[in-house]
Amino acid sequence: MRPDPSAEAKLTEDPEPSRRDGWRPARRIARRLLRPVESFLAIEAASGIILLCAALLALGWANSPWSSSYEALWHIPIGATLGRWSFQRDVHFWINDGLMAVFFFVVGLEIRREMHKGELSELRRAAFPLAAAVGGMLAPALIFALLNRGLPSSSGWGVPMATDIAFAVGVLALLGRRVPPALRVLLLALAVIDDVGAILVIAIFYSTGVQLTGFAIAAGGILGIVILQGFRVRSTVAYALPAIVVWAGIYKSGVHPTLAGVLVGLMTPVRALPGERRSPVENLEGQLHGVVAYWIMPLFALANAGVPLAGVAIDGDGALLFSGVTLGLVLGKPLGIAGMAWLANRAGFALRPRGVQWSGVLVVGLVGGIGFTMSLFVADLAFPPGKLLETAKLAVLVASGLAAVLGLGVGRLVLKQSVDPKAARSAHEAETSTEA
């Protein structure tokens, strides 16, 4: 008696669909977890292009026959007066200390989200990017400090420590299918930890004399936020006033006021209330990320990347300053990131993420040398207006350009072209769902 072909077909075909059906809930969870990361990386990649255009425009404008208008624009006073009280600051202040507080607020939201359910939510998952980020901060600072020891420029050791996530992601995007999803997630986690390090450096080493009165004012603003959260107030506008009070208090305390943004961001709830589709962290990040990436960061680049080349000194002490920043970013970053990650992995402290090869870690280290936004920000805190500041800024621009070119070139050489991007993405989703 011949077997029924249809029955045989069922025996051979049914198990596979059932396995696929079994994976569907896990895949849906994985896609939901990955969606914020994918959206974040897409915005950052596009922002990198706009940042580059803004930097080139600023550099050209500052060295054109209209350079005086460039300088005059950022020194226009803006403020308010009420009776005897007056608060007047120039446009440059409102960009660097005001709008950049919104940038740091989004950074705080990213850190909060990653600590809740991202790459920083578990020590075993965070150990590898943590080791890489620490190495990527220490090595550049050490190179700079050794070259500028005992010089007036020695205060700039924090300049080459930072990574610009927008430019770095933009370079990885140019590598296309050569970059697996896991490598992009590693860069994101590393950059978040790097931002935490930069925030601590700014707060501890680049803040002026501390005044306790300012901290008392900031504490009042924080208390206001806590009370609103206790009553489960979800209106963003309601939190604006206490957030401004926190900013004013931090400013009066002598600590850089942009750190108020990080503090308020870290206080934002990460859990949605019943009936809400997204948590406040996800809502605010969705609302503000595009504003920061497409408007605030390019405006910051336009206001700070305009280096008048006539004011740059690349001789004597200036040469050591320029070399310290350039070598710190271009050489120190990849050595610190790849070297510390390798040592941590070798010691058994950190496990290399699945889907990430050591060649990919090297590429991440190279693009990590793109300092730009945060490096320019720290330079503005480390040096007073003058030749040292302009030299440091030019070094940041040159080093970031070199790091981008090296990252792109080495990436094309050592990263293999993906044959089937859908299969690679499915594998990554399966890994994520298994961990979830």
Radius of gyration: 24 Å
Termini gap: 49 Å
Beta-strand content estimate: under 5%
Shape: globular
**Major sheet attributes:** 2 strands, antiparallel
Mean pLDDT: 85
Main-sheet strand order equals: 1-2
- Count of β-strands: 2
Uncertain stretches of 5 or more adjacent residues: 1-16, 419-424
Number of helices: 16
Helix content estimate: over 70%
Helix/strand-derived class?
Answer: mainly alpha
Topology pattern, helix = H, strand = E? HHHEEHHHHHHHHHHHHH
Describe the structure.
The chain has 436 residues and is an all-alpha fold. 72% of the residues lie in helices and 3% in strands. The protein is built from 16 helices and 2 strands. A two-stranded antiparallel sheet has the order 1-2. The radius of gyration is 24 Å and the shape is globular. The chain starts with a helix and ends with a helix. The N terminus is likely disordered.
State the main characteristics.
436 residues, two-stranded antiparallel ribbon, mainly alpha
Please write out the topology:
Elements: H1 5-13, H2 15-62, H3 67-74, E1 77-82, E2 85-90, H4 91-117, H5 123-147, H6 165-174, H7 181-205, H8 212-230, H9 240-253, H10 259-266, H11 280-304, H12 317-346, H13 358-367, H14 372-382, H15 387-414, H16 421-435
Antiparallel strand pairs: 1-2
What's this entry about, in short?
This protein is mainly α. The chain has helices at residues 5-13, 15-62, 67-74, 91-117, 123-147, 165-174, 181-205, 212-230, 240-253, 259-266, 280-304, 317-346, 358-367, 372-382, 387-414, 421-435, and strands spanning 77-82, 85-90.
